[in-house]
Specification:
Structural class: mainly alpha
Low-confidence stretches: 90-120
Distance between the termini: 91 Å
Number of helices: 6
Largest sheet: none
Length: 312
């Protein structure tokens, strides 16, 4: 009898232990299911937040698009001022300045750029200049969806880029505009055709000009700190006395560019083509400038650059 009681007690203990293990297994399954539900919920919240972010960006983009009407109005008024001054837009030199930028006659036409001997071809009224300044400051940079459907990592302003191109093509004295309170900082000028434009005294800090055509463009005294020019074409461009701190020229083509008194501190020249660059020995600063895998550097350039602070 005693032995039978002990056996029954042992069986009952085993049954209770099995039930406890089964309950623990069910509890673990429940916890796993709750974990999956929480992960799914977090994923949905992340998607919802992304959708809200995209919606805000699209709403901002729509708001900016309304400012395009102001740009159209300004361009119309520029045409009216030029007409009132009996200036034919077709006769205004907007490109092909080449070596003669801001220095004397060019095929019987005065260059747009101001200098002591040749005043501006046309200077906008103060009122209209004020409207341009106000518009440029309203077109603040923002993140928007790229061609791949994803938000850009860095905010840019496509509208500022369009404003700049429209003003340059109108043939007005851009140097006067650049000396005002206008801003073209963080403009989106990717893949833009800006060859032979005169950007004297312009400020394009933080702008994206990757893959842009800047051949023979003039950047005298320009402020280009932090600009992105990856893959850009800068052949025969004039970068004299300009600042390009922290700018990226990765893979850019700089053949024949004039680098007299240029500031390239912490710039990235990785893979850039430096064939036939001019006045490189007068570069103001190469401190921290990356020259990894530069192509066609002038004889002695790499050694000279490393001695002046460049890095590999």
């Amino acid at each position: 009898m005693v032995t039978g009681g002990i056996a029954i007690t042992a069986i009952i203990g085993l049954v209770i232990a099995w039930q406890a293990n089964d309950l623990l297994a069910h509890q673990n399954d429940t916890l796993d299911a709750e974990k999956v539900l929480l992960e799914t919920q977090n994923e949905r919240l992340a998607i919802q937040n992304q959708l809200l972010s995209d919606q805000n960006v699209l709403a901002e983009s729509a708001r900016r698009s309304s400012l395009v009407f102001e740009l159209t109005s300004i361009l119309d008024e520029i045409d009216e001022e030029l007409d009132a001054a009996n200036i034919q837009v077709d006769a205004v030199v907007t490109r092909n300045l080449g070596q003669d930028a801001g220095s004397g006659e060019l095929e019987g036409k005065r260059p747009r750029r101001r200098d002591e001997e040749h005043p501006p071809l046309y200077r906008l009224s103060d009122r209209l200049t004020g409207r341009i300044v106000a518009l440029s400051r309203s077109l603040r940079p923002y993140r928007f969806l790229g061609d791949d459907g994803k938000l850009l990592l860095s905010p840019l302003s496509p509208e500022r880029g369009q404003l700049l191109i429209s003003l340059v093509d109108s043939g007005i004295d851009m140097e006067e505009i650049n000396h005002s309170a206008v801003t073209f900082v963080q403009s989106d000028l990717r893949s833009a055709n800006l060859s032979q434009y005169d950007f004297t005294h312009i400020t394009l800090e933080g702008s994206n000009l990757s893959e842009a055509n800047l051949g023979a463009a003039v950047f005298h005294y320009a402020r280009m700190d932090g600009a992105v020019l990856d893959g850009a074409k800068l052949g025969s461009s004039k970068l004299n006395w300009s600042s390009w701190k922290n700018a990226s020229f990765a893979g850019a083509k700089l053949q024949g560019a004039d680098l007299e008194e240029i500031d390239l501190e912490n710039a990235d020249l990785s893979g850039a083509d430096l064939g036939y660059i001019e006045n490189w020995q007068s570069i103001r600063s190469l401190k921290g400038t990356r020259i990894t895998d530069v192509k066609n550097p002038p004889e002695g350039f790499t050694e000279w650059a490393l001695q002046h602070g460049a890095v590999l």
